[in-house]
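ligand=fe (ii) ion
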Amino acid sequence: MSARPHAKASNEAGIQSKRIEIDVESIEPEWCDDDFYRIFYNILNAAIPTFERYVIRALRAVRDDPRLADEPRLRELIDVFVHQEAEHTRQHVRTNRRIGMNEIATIKVTERITRFLQRRTPVYVSVAAAGFIEFVGFGFFKSHIDRQVLDTSGMQQEMAKLWKWHIAEELEHSFIKLKVINHIDDSYWVKAGGFLEGQIMSHLFVTTLIPEIVWKDARAHGKRFWPHLWMFLKGLGDTEWGVDRESVAKYFRKGFDPEIKDPWVADRINDWIAETNAFVPERRSR
Ligand SMILES: [Fe+2]
Ligand SMILES: [Fe+2]
């Protein structure tokens, strides 16, 4: 019998929070040969802890909302989501310390602005925003999977492992926020507010980090800042984001069930969970 519980879900929610073992010491600051993808994923690395704290706060705030009283499975999904994101943050914080992404000054400003904005917007709008970002805005993961970026861009093994596990769980839980807000309040004004807050937050978490991270990367590689920035912006221009009329319409559509996924999603989740030896910790198994 295996010492570890199987990573497949056996709970009511249908998914579980899984862990991986990462040898952070083996990750070097120059952990990727490809300039564009190193910067791209370093922006995500730097932003992840702040972003995940933001979505965790939003979902925790509605966990015990009376409108979910008749939906125990949605509450269980929120619990799984929070566990998954908290574990992602824990692993990224360790990794960021190793590669210097914990020293990005811009993210500290972003964190303060995020908390300030979140305190002033209705919590349902923040849940819708989290739904928008993770259901629609993370569409670029599909293009990175199609292009096999994690296997072909010269990423060091442990960093590729971190991201395979993380993206697998992002694909797994991408529907939860949208399903929750569709049940609590699917009015257009909440969705429109979420769309707007999602846009602001995406730019706070990504766009504002670009100059500092490109500048640090250029210095580390003996390159000039402006050509390096141009290279990166051109790469962003070539990125397929998956944010189109169809995906945005799904976000706004009443009665839409975001849990019904394209078949490739389940295959990718299973492959990467197996490949990274992700496991369900004993104390969380039921
Ligand atoms: Fe995450
Ligand atoms: Fe997520």
